[in-house]
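Re-run with default settings, no changes from the original entry. Doing this only to confirm the output is reproducible before filing.
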Amino acid sequence: MKKSIQFLVALLIIMGGAFQYAANAQMLADIRSDCATDFALYHPYGAEFTPQVPLSSVPADFSNVTNFQDFAWRFTAKDSSLLLQNHFTVKKSPYRQLFDVYNHCTWNGTPIFVTTDAVLHTYHVLFDRLLAEIETQHLFDRLSGLTEKLLVESASQLATTDQILAREAVYSNTAFLSVALKLLYGPDTDVPDTVSTLVDREIDLIEGHAGFDYSPILGDFSQMDYSQFKVRGHYTGGDTLQAFFKTMMWYGWTIFTMEPELFGPLSSRHTLQALLLVQMLLQLENDCRPLLHQYEVIYQPTAFFSGKTDDPGVVEYRTIAEQIYGKAFSSLSPDSLADPVLLDAFIAEVQKLHGPKIPNWIYGTYVKYKGFRFMGQRFIPDSYLFAHLVYPDVGTAAQQRWMPKALDVMAILGSEPAYVLLDSLYQETAYEGYGQKIAEFNREFKELPAETWAQNLY
């Protein structure tokens, strides 16, 4: 038992870690049988064990911790008090990864107590590395090929389009796709002269990633957060990953509006742009297959890793377009797609689509809106929770909650200590509606079927 206590001190000194007390926590996702998902069959492997570590106590002088003096010089009186009271304290770590701690303990002979956070962290590292390899070795080339084909077709449509709205949509799409090409290959990449000035203005905002501004290409309907284009995570690991990140952010962060009552005529141009993008995926070919296949080869693996898009996209627009324009939708000219009667009918129908669970707000207001995303941002549960645990969903105009806390997620997932801390330490329950929202989300997550929990790696 002394060895367990010995490592406990070493672990907490080296990592500055803490133990989770979860004896009474209820698992919201308890999958005990096979379940089918869109990607594959999920087969759970159960692990049953009986804890056998006996209880122990530590005297005030730590005399039964055999290697205590190896670390005592790093403890303040407060640290020692916390060790006795809680069995852990927190110190700044010189290590970057959990496995560095294990290596250190192996080299110097300190016994190792493997905690669940180590397993979870290892899973995260593998997840991140595998995704980076797939993006670099496979998805970047497919994204480049997709963008090039779409841009060539869109630029060619400028010469054959006469209707004013159709020309505006084709011109804007050519600029939209040219931005993606420059993000993929660099600022010196040639794009059609007709849109080069507009594209350069957009690229300057993306590379500046300074914050909210109106998009020169999409128009003045709501400011876009250009700070989101700041490269982060594993995408800082090379030029290819950086280019992939910025291009996917451009395809996923931009929105083509569908609501005339909010945005007037601009929604018609945006909707026509979206229709043209969907049409090109169906019309163009790559290796004797519709370009839609290449789109799916990019979208599906990323959906398996991170989740499906939360906004209306290619599938929904194709389905409704074939209802409104007919089965020949994919072969119609831009002028035909711009037919005002058919376009208005299409807009009326797509407005019936579900809104995203992670809402889009018109900048500077609390007005939500819907729109088409070419390869939309992915729905992930923690972002969903955070989006609805701040004002205007929680708090009042006089007492607004602006920032969620990681503990919110833990409380919703059933951690009683997390909720106690939120209540007693941070007084978050003082915000109007906070406790009600936590309870609502807890019920919602309890009701999720196994297929939802197993649908992707995230």
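The chain has three domains: 2-114, 124-361, 381-453. Residues 124-361 form one domain.
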